[in-house]
Design a protein that fits this description.
Strand content: 35-45%
Largest sheet: 7 strands, mixed
Mean pLDDT: 78
Distance between the termini: 57 Å
Radius of gyration: 20 Å
Low-confidence stretches: 17-28
Number of strands: 9
Structural class: alpha+beta
Helix content: 10-25%
Order of helices and strands: HEEHEEEEEEHE
Number of helices: 3
Length: 155
C-alpha cells in the first residue's frame, strides 16, 4: 500500500511538472516574429500586440541579441509612451507611422530597480505613431537611421 502511494505521488509530481513546462514553453515562445528591413539592415522582431505583452516588453531579460528587437503594434495611431521598468540593458526606441520613422530616442538607459512606478521616467512621442520598435542601444547610430526613413515589415 505504501509502495502504491509513493508510485501515485511520483506520477502526480511528474504530471504537475509536465504541465508547468508545457505552459512555460507555450508562453515563452508565443510571440510571433517578423522581419523588419530598414535600409540595408534586417531585424527579427517579436510582435507585442496584446496589452500584457506590451506592458512587459523587453523587461526582465538579460540582453537583446544583435539584429533583434520588439515591435509594438497598435490598432490606431496615437501618442505612445514607454518606461524602462524591469529593463536590464539600454535600448533605442523608434516610433513609426505608416511605415516611416517619426521619432528616435537613442541609448535609453534602464531605470534603477528601487524606483517606484510613479517615479519612473517615461519616453514618449510628441507625434502620432502606429508602431514602436525597440532595438539594442547604438543600433540607430550604427545604421544611420533618420526621420522619414521607410521600413518594410515581412511576416
Amino acid at each position: 500500500n505504501k509502495l502504491l502511494s509513493n508510485n501515485f505521488k511520483m506520477k502526480f509530481i511528474i504530471l504537475i511538472l509536465s504541465i508547468c513546462f508545457i505552459t512555460v514553453g507555450l508562453c515563452d515562445g508565443a510571440m510571433r516574429k517578423v522581419e523588419i528591413k530598414i535600409g540595408q539592415s534586417v531585424i527579427v522582431a517579436e510582435i507585442a500586440k496584446s496589452p500584457s505583452d506590451q506592458r512587459r516588453g523587453l523587461g526582465y531579460r538579460d540582453q537583446l541579441e544583435a539584429n533583434r528587437g520588439m515591435l509594438f503594434v497598435y490598432n490606431n495611431p496615437g501618442v505612445r509612451s514607454f518606461w524602462m521598468k524591469g529593463m536590464r540593458f539600454a535600448i533605442d526606441i523608434i516610433w513609426l507611422r505608416q511605415g516611416r520613422i517619426v521619432l528616435i530616442e537613442k541609448n535609453v538607459q534602464p531605470s534603477p530597480i528601487f524606483k517606484k512606478n510613479s517615479h519612473l521616467k517615461t519616453y514618449g512621442s510628441s507625434v502620432l505613431a502606429d508602431m514602436v520598435l525597440e532595438v539594442s542601444a547604438g543600433f540607430s547610430d550604427k545604421m544611420k537611421l533618420s526621420l522619414g526613413q521607410h521600413i518594410t515589415i515581412n511576416e
